[in-house]
């Protein structure tokens, strides 16, 4: 079985069935030099090659301001997260059609080599969020998002898209 997240630049889709190369398939297709390390609940990825956007000098991802509000969206099933700075940490609020008000959790931010991660607990389940740069479509609208998102809540993994208060989604002419 492959890793639960990938800090890479490949496009993702909120509906994982629409994306031909899921993380597990990429793992099985031969990126065998991938090794995962767990560090305080955040997964780190070492590069397969220098050409995948990973900085060889170890510079961390700085593409999202610590003050930015981050929104994550997905469908099949519909879900959303809003991550906002609060005091010395961040609050991630998880919403679904059944829970419009949402459930909030305190999370810790981690800037990886080619992406951003958050970790915490949501309703007594481990919460891991990985956000990576790369064009993303939610398959339900004409919107294009600047980030891909992978969220793990307990044993459930959600795939979706993300945007920030500084980098909104772009909306095409056929958007609702």
Summarize the structure.
The protein has 1 helix and 12 strands; from the N terminus they run E-H-E-E-E-E-E-E-E-E-E-E-E. It is mainly beta. It has a domain at 13-29 and 69-167.
Distance between the termini: 38 Å
Rg from alpha-carbon coordinates: 15 Å
**Biggest pleated sheet:** 8 strands, antiparallel, barrel
Order of helices and strands: EHEEEEEEEEEEE
Helix content: under 10%
Q: Structural class of the helix and strand makeup?
A: mainly beta
**Spatial order of strands in the largest sheet:** 4-5-6-7-8-9-10-11
Q: Kindly state the mean pLDDT as a whole number?
A: 75
Contiguous uncertain segments of 5+ residues: 1-13, 15-51
Tell me the β content. Answer: over 45%
Tally of DSSP helical segments: 1
Strand elements, count: 12
């Amino acid at each position: 079985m492959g890793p639960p997240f990938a800090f890479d630049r490949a496009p993702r889709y909120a509906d994982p069935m629409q994306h031909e190369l899921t993380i597990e398939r990429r793992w099985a297709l031969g990126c065998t030099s991938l090794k995962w390390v767990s560090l305080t609940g955040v997964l780190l990825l070492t590069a397969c090659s220098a050409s995948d956007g990973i900085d060889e000098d170890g510079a961390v991802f700085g593409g999202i301001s610590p003050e930015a509000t981050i929104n994550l969206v997905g469908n099949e099933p519909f879900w959303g997260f809003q991550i906002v700075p609060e005091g010395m940490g961040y609050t991630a609020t998880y919403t679904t059609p059944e829970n419009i008000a949402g459930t909030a959790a305190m999370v810790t931010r981690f800037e990886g080599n080619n992406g951003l991660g958050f970790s915490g607990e949501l309703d007594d389940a481990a919460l891991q969020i990985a956000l990576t740069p790369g064009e993303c479509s939610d398959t339900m609208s004409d919107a294009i998002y600047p980030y891909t998102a992978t969220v793990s809540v307990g044993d459930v993994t959600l795939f979706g898209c993300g945007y920030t208060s500084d980098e909104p989604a772009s909306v095409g002419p056929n958007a609702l």
